[in-house]
Amino acid sequence: MPARLDRFRLIAAGQAEVAVLVVDSDVLLVERQLRAGRLNCPACSAPLAPWGHGRSRMVRGDLGARLFLRPRRTRCSGCQVTHVLLPEAVWPRRMDAAEVIGTGLEIAALGMGHRQIAAHLGMAEGTVRGWLRRFRRRSEDVRRHFTVALVALAEDPVMPEAAASPLSDAVSVIAAAHRAAAMKWPEMNTGSRWAFAGRAIGGQVLTCTTSAS
Ligand SMILES: [Zn+2]
Fold it and tell me: Per-domain residue ranges for the chain?
């Protein structure tokens, strides 16, 4: 894997209780990288070593799908900080799969309200309302973050035109940055749009580290 993409994938999403790294969803690949000393600490760049597992958790997909996750825990051989490796299919502190939340945000960007989105995805209305409220609060920061990413990734960056709302603007620029990443690294699997988004912003699509939620 090119070093640049590797770094891109391992932006830290520090949390109050424990540091989290968003990594590839391919568990065997991550395990191989970990055992070969190819995953590095985002703080001090020393190799991370296996350090047991985090708490098991259940992740909700759309239409009632459930998946169980037991994230790998690691310890930095340099600064001794422990990190939980979180697959890019989920975002820190979220019980719902990244793909489902992202799909909900895309539908919201088209102008649909939380009730319709909830019905479409088979999720509770309150859950979808919570995603939208958080994302609206984050949308300007997210838009700015992915605008910078788009400029860095694209040969000839074309900014998406201003959309109907800050939420829609943020969703558009994530999509544009994802397309640019796929063009820049055609040989790599850049993953789905929302897995990419979580990785690129260290899991902080709906929440940031300083947020209480
Ligand atoms: Zn370290």
Answer: 3-200
Question: What's the CA-to-centroid distance between 24 and ligand 1, angstroms?
Answer: 20
Locate 204 and state its tokens.
């902080």
Beta bridge partners of 67: 59
| DSSP assignment letter at 10 | T
CA of 40 to the centre of ligand 1 (A): 8
Q: 111 alpha carbon to ligand 1 midpoint, in Å? A: 44
Whole-model pTM: value is 0.82
Cα(83) to centroid(ligand 1), Å: 9
d(C-alpha 99, C-alpha 4), whole Å: 24
Q: What is the pLDDT of residue 42?
A: 83
pLDDT along the chain (213 residues), means of 10: 35 43 81 91 91 88 85 92 87 90 96 96 96 96 94 87 92 95 83 88 80 35
Q: Compute, in angstroms, the gap from residue 45 CA to the centroid of ligand 1.
A: 6
